[in-house]
Every structure is written in structure tokens, then in C-alpha cells.
Design brief:
CATH superfamily: Penicillin V Acylase, Chain A
Oligomer: single chain
Distance between the termini: 58 Å
Shape: globular
Helix content: 10-25%
Number of helices: 6
Structural class: alpha+beta
Largest sheet: 8 strands, antiparallel
Number of domains: 1
Strand content: 25-35%
Number of strands: 17
CATH topology: Penicillin V Acylase, Chain A
CATH architecture: 4-Layer Sandwich
Order of helices and strands: HEEEEEEEEEHHEEEEHHHEEEE
Radius of gyration: 21 Å
Length: 364
């Protein structure tokens, strides 16, 4: 299949996403933890209200030939991948939004509407051009550490496939526990060390970090120093008073604050596997209920819920996990069991059947 045909098919899907973008949520939430055994786990949700992302998992072999799309229908950067990887793609097989490669490098795309600005498409630089939806694939196929990504990012020019589309930013982490956020603003690439380990959407990452200063009153467990403690009839209703004042809406700033709080108050687990399970439990709090993303009197969309999938990557154990809004059973691909020099390029839906499995309990 040639690039023009691929772009034509992509256009039909992306145009639908673009049309719904301003009306619906694109509310990704990312967290990360280090286990006692040194395992570094990055997890995230992917929300989209308004259309089915048609997500599928992809297994990409080492040496695979990648061809970037361009807004003109031609071919951008072409390269053979150094590493194999596993990821989740949406709308098109080459649009990988989250993934893990055989060296334990994790990368993910998070939507960044209204704040990013890529360089303008330049036909004289087409052989360096990569659309934002293929940046994750470029990272996973070529690099093994965060530092390598930083050192080589200026080798590509990131552009949009469609002028009306919104922009994205990226999270990259490696087994050492180092994590960065990449944002392109006013055509300039910014790398931020993400020591907090949380990422959502707009505004820019430094703004989110600074906004945490508004919530320094939040504490573990119960709030101390109750100003009304002298009044015997005034007391707490129950547990959780340390969280009073935390924002509960689904905007990116509020989700960032909640994710940071849940992350810092969570216990450290012994292993990567235990940490992965903890991440899924924490991210339950960021599932967006059906209807929240709709405008008043707007007809329901074609998806079962706004949080279409949730993933977790164990960068040390080399395991990639996911669940979906149609089936909350956690599934896993063990990258250590894959021979990326021989495996075939594979694409398969995240859900073979979009139905939640139910275990029936028989009582005699």
C-alpha cells in the first residue's frame, strides 16, 4: 500500500477526530512509580470523547522499515528501526500513542491543545519530517535511553498532518527511572525533567508543576490543626480530611493535582508486578463516566465511555499491560519472550470481543 493511500485513509479518520476535538475531551493522565526491586513503571489513560479510536496493539520487529507521512501526501523520514517494540496504535497502525521497546524505553503521546506550536512544513526538509502521531514510533524504534532521545531529537522536524489538528506533547522514560516531557512551543523543542512523574494535558508542564503550590495544604491521612477543635460538636465526618480542597473535575490541571496526590501518598511496592496493579487501581480514579464529555442536549457519541484504554509499562520487567473501557480484564505482552529479530509485524485489536468477562460463582 503506498503512502498516498495510507494518508487518504488516515485523513478520513483524523478529520472526524479533528471535528470533535473542540467539543470533547482528550484527557490523558500519566503516573509513574519505582518499586523496591528497582522496577520503573509508567502508566496512563487515554480518553477521547466523540469517536472510537479503533485502538489496536502492534508488535514491530527490529529492522522494520518506517515511512513517515506528510501533509502533502508524500513520504517524510524513512528509516529502519534499530529496536523492536510493542505499543497501542489508534486510527492507523503507524499512529502509536503509547509503547515500550526491547531495551525498556517507554514513550507516549499526550494531547496538548492550544499551547504547542510545531515548525511549518518545509518541503526542502521532507526527509527529516515526522508527523506528531509517529514520533512515539520514531523514539521507540531508534533509542534505548532518555538521553539518546534528547541528543537526537533535533534530527527530525515534527509537523502536523492536517493544519486544523491540535498539537501533542510526549512522555519518555527508561529503566533508570529518568523521565522527561517533550513540548514544542513556538517551534522550539523544550525538554523538562519530570521528577514528579505525572503528566496530563494543557497548559505546559512547568505551569502544572507551579500550580501544585496552590495545594501545599494537602496532607497524608487526616488534617491536623483543626481550627474548630475547641468546639466539641465540630468533628470530621470520616477519613480523608487531608484531601479536603483537592479539585475533583476532569480538567487537565485538576487531574494533574489529583494524580500527583495519589502518587505521593501511595505505598511503594516490592516488585514491578505489584506496582503495575497499583497503577491500574489509581487510574480507576481517572475513568471519565459516560456523558461527562457531552454538551447539554448533545446526542451520545459512538463510544462506550471517554476513557477508552489504560496501559502500564514495566521498563525493567519488559512487560506491556492494558485494559479497555469495554473489557477491564488486564492483558499483558511479555517483550522478553519475543525474538524481535524474527517476529513478524503484528496488528490486533485490543479487544478480541468488546465484552467484559464475568466469572460466575457456583454455590452448592
Amino acid at each position: 500500500m503506498n503512502i498516498s493511500t495510507l494518508l487518504g485513509r488516515a485523513a478520513a479518520v483524523i478529520s472526524l477526530l479533528v471535528c470533535t476535538f473542540s467539543l470533547h475531551l482528550s484527557a490523558c493522565t500519566g503516573i509513574s512509580f519505582t518499586a523496591e526491586d528497582g522496577s520503573y513503571v509508567l502508566a496512563r489513560t487515554a480518553e477521547w470523547g466523540g469517536s472510537d479510536l479503533q485502538s489496536r496493539y502492534v508488535i514491530v520487529p527490529r529492522g522494520f522499515r518506517h515511512a513517515a507521512l506528510t501533509s502533502t501526501g508524500g513520504t517524510g523520514l524513512v528509516f529502519n528501526g534499530k529496536y523492536g517494540y510493542v505499543g497501542v496504535a489508534s486510527s492507523q497502525d503507524q499512529f502509536v500513542l503509547e509503547g515500550l521497546n526491547e531495551k525498556g524505553l517507554s514513550a507516549g503521546l499526550f494531547f496538548f491543545p492550544g499551547y504547542g506550536q510545531y515548525p511549518q512544513y518545509d518541503s526542502t526538509e521532507v526527509d527529516r519530517t515526522v508527523p506528531d502521531m509517529q514520533v512515539v514510533s520514531w523514539i521507540l524504534a531508534n533509542f534505548s535511553t532518555v538521553q539518546e532521545v534528547i541528543d537526537h531529537f533535533d534530527e527530525i522536524i515534527v509537523t502536523k498532518l492536517f493544519p486544523e489538528a491540535q498539537t501533542s506533547h510526549w512522555r519518555v522514560g527508561d529503566p533508570s527511572g529518568r523521565q522527561i516531557v517533550i513540548e514544542i512551543v513556538d517551534g522550539r523543542t523544550n525538554f523538562y525533567e519530570n521528577k514528579i512523574g505525572v503528566l496530563t494535558n494543557a497548559p505546559d508542564f512547568p505551569w502544572h508543576v507551579k500550580n501544585l503550590n496552590n495545594y501545599v495544604n494537602l496532607t497524608f491521612g487526616e488534617a491536623d490543626g483543626n481550627a474548630f477543635s475547641a468546639w466539641p460538636d465540630v468533628h470530621r465526618f470520616g477519613a480523608g480530611t487531608g484531601m479536603i480542597g483537592i479539585p475533583g473535575d476532569v480538567t487537565p490541571p485538576s487531574r494533574f493535582v489529583r494524580a500527583a496526590y495519589y502518587q505521593v501518598t501511595a505505598p511503594q511496592y516490592a516488585t514491578g508486578a505489584e506496582t503495575v496493579m497499583s497503577c491500574f487501581l489509581i487510574l480507576n480514579n481517572f475513568d471519565i463516566p459516560i456523558g461527562v464529555e457531552r454538551q447539554k442536549d448533545q446526542a451520545p457519541t459512538d463510544i462506550a465511555g471517554a476513557t477508552q484504554w489504560t496501559t502500564a509499562t514495566d521498563t525493567k520487567g519488559l512487560r506491556f499491560y492494558w485494559r479497555t473501557c469495554w473489557n477491564s480484564t488486564i492483558r499483558c505482552i511479555d517483550l522478553a519472550a519475543i525474538d524481535f529479530s524474527r517476529v513478524k509485524y503484528t496488528v490486533s485489536p485490543l479487544d478480541k470481543v468488546r465484552q467484559q468477562s464475568i466469572e460466575m460463582i457456583c454455590v452448592n
